[in-house]
Write a sequence for this structure.
């Protein structure tokens, strides 16, 4: 296959405004229908218009999360959902196990310490992920653990948890709560709340849901709900029983919601329901694999441990001589493709491509072409033809399986 010719585009060109390809691990590209849904006539949040919108959104969310309790929606980013999972059940002196192999695990650990609880860290190197046996050992050594926090996809490195179901079974056997910080892969990787014995899923609108940023989504088990009503914490904005009571009484939120985002979320949920969750998981799997195989075929070195690779965040080491700033800024200005850099010690050493949301053949092939061409321009001899060939083979799989 011949390389694609990518039009050199720039926001300062005479061609008007164009949509860049946002290949970040969030926010992700938002389908036009979802953006358009926000251009709705204004409504009040204490009206029957909002109640019926919220009823619809919650009903659809309950199907997608595969849960028994109504989902809770906060007008906030994903961090608020994660924080709510901590502040609503943990107290001073409680023990909580947490996976730590990058920035987001470290943040959860800090948030646990912040309420005076003790984080028991399951640590792995950056690019690797703790194992199920690490969790088994920690639970045996700490039978009084109140909750297990799993960052299901460590977005900062591109490593994911491949034993979430087993963790749910194990944690519930020990009588603890299983909390998933699934901010960057709920909707992309399978995690049915009920079947996996998960007690709390935290995610948000701008990742795999492919809506604009601004809503934090929470799904809880009946066990978690009973606990927060039995032992309600003195909280204000993140007081989950308050959200639940308000919804039960009025189908509204206790505080003013970001109304346009509810219209967007409603549409984004429709798209998810139309596609079907199993198809979404397959699509994310094939698109992720297409990226990994293509980057290797191009002659690049993938970052991290192969067995724990994320399906949605593809981390790639920079070849010698390629500078992060030059690479990512020219990728954006010359090719209109936006990717992320490394975190912490890995700033300048790797780039990360987000392959989530409505990611499809167009996004994958265009991104690979742009990256290959840009690397060549910067002096790295990228084998773009093989990269596109191997990506195309993986993508053909999507069409044949769906
Ligand atoms: C795993 C994980 N947790 C939490 C967050 C924080 O989400 P937000 O920036 O929406 O607050 C992120 C953001 O990328 C994430 O990837």
């Amino acid at each position: 296959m011949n390389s694609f010719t990518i039009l050199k585009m720039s926001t300062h060109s005479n061609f008007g405004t164009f949509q860049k390809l946002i290949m970040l691990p969030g926010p992700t590209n938002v389908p036009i229908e979802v953006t358009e849904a926000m251009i709705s006539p204004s409504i009040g949040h204490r009206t029957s218009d909002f109640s019926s919108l919220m009823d619809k959104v919650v009903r659809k969310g309950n199907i997608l999360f595969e849960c028994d309790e109504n989902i809770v929606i906060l007008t906030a980013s994903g961090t608020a959902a994660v924080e709510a999972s901590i502040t609503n059940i943990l107290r001073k002196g409680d023990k909580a196990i947490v996976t730590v192999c990058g920035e987001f695990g470290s943040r959860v650990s800090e948030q646990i310490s912040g309420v005076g609880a003790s984080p028991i860290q399951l640590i792995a190197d950056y690019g690797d992920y703790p194992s199920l046996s690490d969790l088994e050992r920690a639970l045996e050594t700490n039978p009084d653990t109140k909750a297990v926090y799993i960052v299901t996809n460590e977005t900062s490195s591109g490593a994911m948890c491949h034993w979430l179901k087993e963790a749910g079974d194990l944690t519930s056997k020990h009588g603890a709560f299983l909390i998933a910080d699934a901010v960057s892969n709920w909707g992309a990787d399978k995690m049915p709340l009920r079947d996996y014995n998960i007690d709390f899923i935290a995610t948000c609108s701008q990742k795999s849901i492919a809506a604009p940023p601004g809503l934090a989504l929470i799904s809880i088990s009946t066990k978690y709900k009973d606990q927060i009503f039995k032992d309600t914490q003195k909280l204000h904005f993140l007081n989950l029983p308050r959200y639940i009571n308000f919804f039960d009484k009025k189908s509204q939120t206790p505080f003013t919601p970001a109304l346009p985002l509810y219209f967007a979320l409603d549409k984004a949920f429709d798209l998810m329901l139309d596609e079907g969750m199993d198809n979404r998981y397959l699509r994310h799997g094939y698109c992720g694999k297409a990226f990994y195989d293509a980057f290797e075929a191009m002659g690049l070195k993938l970052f991290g441990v192969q067995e724990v690779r994320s399906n949605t965040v593809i981390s790639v080491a920079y070849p010698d001589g390629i500078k992060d700033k030059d690479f990512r800024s020219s990728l954006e200005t010359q090719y209109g493709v936006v990717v992320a850099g490394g975190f912490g010690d890995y700033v300048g050493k790797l780039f990360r491509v987000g392959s989530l949301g409505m990611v499809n053949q167009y996004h994958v092939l265009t991104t690979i072409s742009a990256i290959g061409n840009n690397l060549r321009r910067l002096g790295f001899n990228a084998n773009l033809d093989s990269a596109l060939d191997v990506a195309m083979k993986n993508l053909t799989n999507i069409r044949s399986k769906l």
Observations:
- The pocket of pyridoxal-5'-phosphate is lined by residues 26, 77-79, 82, 104, 151, 153, 155, 181, 183-184, 204 (CB under 6 Å).
- The domain at 21-29+277-401 is CATH 3.90.1150.10 (Aspartate Aminotransferase, domain 1).
- The longest strand covers residues 95-100.
